[in-house]
Amino acid sequence: MTGNVIPRSGGTDVVPGFVPAGAPLGQIGTDPDDPEDPWSAAAPPGGVVVQTPGPSASPGSVGTLRVPLPKNLPTGPRRVGIQVGHWKTDEAPTELDKLVVQTGASWEGVNEVDVNLDIAQRVAVILNARGIAVDILPTTVPSGYLADAVVALHADSDGVGENSGFKMAHNARRGTYEDALLAAIKSTYAKATGLDYDATHISRSMTGYYIYSWTRFQHAVSPFTPGVILEMGYLSNDDDRALLLDKPDLLAQGISDGILRFLSDTPRAKIFEKDLVVPAFPSRPPAPTATP
Ligand SMILES: [Zn+2]
Predict the structure, then answer these.
(1) Where are the domains of the chain?
(2) CATH: 1.10.580.10, 3.50.50.60, 3.30.1640.10, 3.40.630.40. Which one for 79-271?
(3) pTM of the entire structure?
(4) How far is CA 62 from the centre of its chain?
(5) Fewest CB within 10 A of the end CB: N or C in the chain?
(6) Ion ligand 1: residues, Cβ under 5 Å
(7) What is the pLDDT of residues 137-147, one digit of tens each?
């Protein structure tokens, strides 16, 4: 594969704004959605070009991040990562410390992580049988993980047993195929399970899911890898829980069908076609001063 326009060995200083892999992306500031938690973003494998707005840029312009096309693109069979929510969280590195306390939902003796792992393994069997390579990923994903798709599996609890249904989300500042991946799984999963889509309880921990927050964490999948998070249903709801526990093959088929549809609609050559350019974060605003 050719087309890498950004030199990244023996001459990385040729491109203004180039930040090599692992170096801080301090120029961009702090996530404005979470100013209390300054992130320690670092450039992913392959580095990033930070293009700050020039003197002639329009007011409010935040510049862009250009991510060069990865050097080691996937070859061979289509590859899919299935992340098991909360699996091996105790092995997470320091940067994910906040997540270590999140052990997942638990209801009537059923632990979410066990459900997530069970469904993930069934999805892997179905996809393997179709010639697709599958990586079952724990809490800590490989930095810059490259694949044709990644789906993170979770199950939910609302603490009272009222909510029902499944939820999905993807992050910002990533490639252009995440809407398509989400739509494909949303359609096949709804059809297979009969569950309603719960659009009203999609949280910021979903839309900012850490394994897709490559501008914030080192242990995030490549922004080129199309990724979504799926909350498969509510463990706290009697009907949803019965489905999760008693019909795991149905759920796995619904997820697999969506992934297969996405892969057949989206050639690898399109996913890894060209450098990715996404908006940078605005600079962190100064802390408000108390008014007398
Ligand atoms: Zn979870």
Answers:
(1) 1-69+274-292, 79-271
(2) 3.40.630.40
(3) 0.87
(4) 23
(5) C
(6) 85, 104, 154
(7) 999 999 899 99
